[in-house]
Amino acid sequence: MWRVAFFASRSRSHLVWMDSVPKSAASVKKILCEAPVESVVQVSGTVVSRPPGQENPKMPTGEIEVKVKTAELLNPCKKLPFEVKDFMKKTEALRLQYRYLDLRSSQMQYNLRLRSQMVMKMREYLCNLHGFVDVETPTLFKRTPGGAKEFVVPSREPGKFYSLPQSPQQFKQLLMVGGLDRYFQVARCYRDEGSKPDRQPEFTQIDIEMSFVDQTGIRSLIEGLLQYSWPRDKAPVGVPFPSMTFAEALATYGTDKPDTRFGMKIVDISDVFRNTEVGFLQDALSKPQGTVKAICIPEGAKYLKRKDIESIRKFAADHFDQEVLPVFLKANRNWNSPVAKLVMEEQGPGLLRRMENQEEDMVLLTAGEHKRACTLLGKLRLECADLLEARGVLLRDPALFSFLWVVDFPLFLPKEENPGELESAHHPFTAPHPGDIHLLHTEPEKVRSQHYDLVLNGSEIGGGSVRIHDAQLQRYILETLLKEDVKLLSHLLQALDHGAPPHGGIALGLDRLICLVTGAPSIRDVIAFPKSFRGQDLMSNAPDFIPPEDLKPYHIQVSWPTDKETEKNPLNPPRQAES
Amino acid sequence: MWRVAFFASRSRSHLVWMDSVPKSAASVKKILCEAPVESVVQVSGTVVSRPPGQENPKMPTGEIEVKVKTAELLNPCKKLPFEVKDFMKKTEALRLQYRYLDLRSSQMQYNLRLRSQMVMKMREYLCNLHGFVDVETPTLFKRTPGGAKEFVVPSREPGKFYSLPQSPQQFKQLLMVGGLDRYFQVARCYRDEGSKPDRQPEFTQIDIEMSFVDQTGIRSLIEGLLQYSWPRDKAPVGVPFPSMTFAEALATYGTDKPDTRFGMKIVDISDVFRNTEVGFLQDALSKPQGTVKAICIPEGAKYLKRKDIESIRKFAADHFDQEVLPVFLKANRNWNSPVAKLVMEEQGPGLLRRMENQEEDMVLLTAGEHKRACTLLGKLRLECADLLEARGVLLRDPALFSFLWVVDFPLFLPKEENPGELESAHHPFTAPHPGDIHLLHTEPEKVRSQHYDLVLNGSEIGGGSVRIHDAQLQRYILETLLKEDVKLLSHLLQALDHGAPPHGGIALGLDRLICLVTGAPSIRDVIAFPKSFRGQDLMSNAPDFIPPEDLKPYHIQVSWPTDKETEKNPLNPPRQAES
């Protein structure tokens, strides 16, 4: 005798499916037939094999059925706002509002169960196989220097606030000083970025730190971790992952997170054009940092339409103020563009040699300063890949997982608002590259860091670094180079002064990783209860108003904006505008 | 060749200890001898067996030593604020301020590593052996009805706040509705209780919920979970755990979390005193709910001093407004108390029969309303156990772990501020006891619940219940009985209307559990970076002031208290007052 309960009209992996209801038991049949869709029903009966020919090999329980003896309607389902079937198109707002129903879809069940299993395997690898210690670090912390994106939490001490940290960075370094030499945590982190699509105000990272380790050590740990935890139903992960310097990534793919599943690499063809008569190329090359760069769109002549070319050129003009020249090898496609025709006549052979083109290919050519030209072509490379795939060309195999380490980032970048000053390219605790230490006091902008990023299929899924363990160096970088208020970090500097071991670590963005593994369209599809892009929980309607008396213990009050300010505030449109 | 790095002058489990430095290498010896204590040193050399007779069986690496070839001081340690040796007494404030040094103590290392291992075993049990799914639920949520202890987090929408939830209660129920029928999470929870000793504003619970389960199912799951995850170096856990009703716990131990490692149970001796001439006993018994209760302190006559008795009586008078009468069986100890003498003369034989006393025992006797008398004696029972143990009597074996289920709690309690109204004894989602459903509409105060507590050695380490899965019943309890604003919970009520399966769950307080397992004096000793009892991080000085411009995006401002208010506010004494 077998007793099961389930959502009526749908099978669940651990439940058996009823095909046969004994005709004698009319009342049982009535209960089961009349139960509204998605109600919860309990039946008792005998599990038997399905009659020959009626097996369903596509169902986990497709070989059996239950001869039902009793049936009970445990809880009926009221009218549904939508049907819980994957092929039904629902707006995302509706799905989020009725998340408890959306979670019943087989896709959400798959995503969340896979997430749980993958994290469990990661824990086994770190904790059981490699001696890591799972340490929980506080989320009620204090503001970090420059922590403008940190949520604040008022305390009962007037004027004093906790901050919800963006990562356990300081704590994990302090744990290294504390002799917990292999730390990991599946850490909840917080970042208040206002409204950004596909970002969540709270997110999860696999947070790792080790003492007495170098870049190679951490990289091979992570490669092993991903290999070990990779789902069995996906193509296995090959290790070691290839690695590329930041400079190479920029020059070849125009980005620090290259999608290496396909080619269309950027080629520097400046030398081919040394004697060009084309105006904008001449101009560019006459400048000190001037270059000519190109990518080759395979079969672009066959698949890209005139309007595609136009939208590409418009994008370059709008976002980069750059000219882009499409050149077709099939001479007849270039008649409309005298410039392209000129290029083919002048530099055709050189171009062909350098780009290794086929007849149906198209070359996208631009000129200008190295970084700018590369970044533009990097974007156009992805844009064209989208276009080609929309026309049925398979460039990026969805079953393929292409990992890549990007290394040797610059330690500092010029500040956006004040390019004369420096800011950390990643964070101020990143150690400088040992080969560049001598430049720290003379040309800090040239110093490479010991930061590394892990990229999967063109998305950054992790980043980390070897950290500074020398208090004096840390103080110099914070105070002299970054002009930070070191008082906010005095505890960390003090800790480094007390025998801090050399250490380094990494954090993997779990939501993004699971999103890529499952092929979900958004990270919201791998989170049980995500916020909308405006940071709202559409199910419970959080955040919500709070009576003023409940704010009193925290010594805060609301500064209501004037009507004028409200109008200007894009974050505060009427509720129904949210999707 | 073996290369290791470590904190100078202390061995770590994975490191070898140097006993022999080749005399030829004077420079190596100099480095090692001159490195300040707690510095980080790296040596390379050859691992060899220690000379016979020099092995140290107490050290994990006591059989080997390293013949050092090179040595390097990786990072020196500046002057220490205290010595990192367990026998050095430090004030807790100092330990918290230099937490990164305190973490190096063998006790903190043991506590945190045991915590990590025990949680890992729990995960294996739940995830790998019992098909539970680890689901992360949001911590930026909305206020729950009556959520006065919830931290608020201002959002960028004027006047709207998130709340940091006290538990994932609503989410785990919604997951059940969503068909994730076995959920668990090691969940970070938040509770703002102001200053309370041995409470933390953020804490961790092992959060579990299951569909299609009854009390027995959850209890045996938890028994298996604890048995499976229990550390090997502790006495094994026997299952099933004994269970006791709330009524029985109150009557026998005067509390809902009895420490069942020792006896001294409360005995109702009202019938013995039916004809007493002692005034306060007569008075008590003449009232409708009047009782006389007693506990027996074994060898109390031998170990308890006059001042102990006095402090016990004072405690009863101060906190319970109750009289307590100590009665010694050794008649000569009672000469100072004519009342005790009278009792022994009148009721001696009856008392002896009921209490099963020995000659050296002492009886503590009180009279009054059942609950009040029991609660008082429950406190005195623990008080006397402390006193006896301070005198060298072993009552509570520290190696013993005594688990107990307490069940059949009342579903509602009279509101403290308004006893005519009801409030939930635990939370409003708790299902009523099936045997008492008929009383819900007539005498709700008599309804027992399907709540259960798990008690270990007198501490509550967990609690849970079978939940209400019927929307109509949930609405009746919220609206009619509890007078709550159901609008705040409309999403949950709606979810129950959409085919919610019967479900139940539990949450175990991880910090408290690990504290009891390790025998740590405070939960702060099993948390890497705890807050002080005033909610401060003494290392980083969180919470901290924030510039007003950083509050602007959140539309809040600080309401600075006037000087008078500050004086009255006990939460805001000068910093140095904190210990």
From TrEMBL, chains A, B:
Q: Which residues form the Aminoacyl-transfer RNA synthetases class-II family profile domain?
A: 112-547
In short, the EC number is 6.1.1.12
Q: Name one GO cellular component term.
A: mitochondrial membrane
Top EC group: ligase
> What GO terms in the biological process aspect are recorded for it?
aspartyl-tRNA aminoacylation
User: Mostly located where?
Assistant: mitochondrion
Q: What superkingdom does the record give?
A: Eukaryota
Region annotation (Disordered) maps to 560-579
Reactions listed under catalytic activity: tRNA(Asp) + L-aspartate + ATP = L-aspartyl-tRNA(Asp) + AMP + diphosphate
Subunit note: Homodimer.
Family listed: Belongs to the class-II aminoacyl-tRNA synthetase family. Type 1 subfamily.
Q: What does this protein do?
A: Catalyzes the attachment of aspartate to tRNA(Asp) in a two-step reaction: aspartate is first activated by ATP to form Asp-AMP and then transferred to the acceptor end of tRNA(Asp).
What's the protein called, per UniProt? Answer: Aspartate--tRNA ligase, mitochondrial
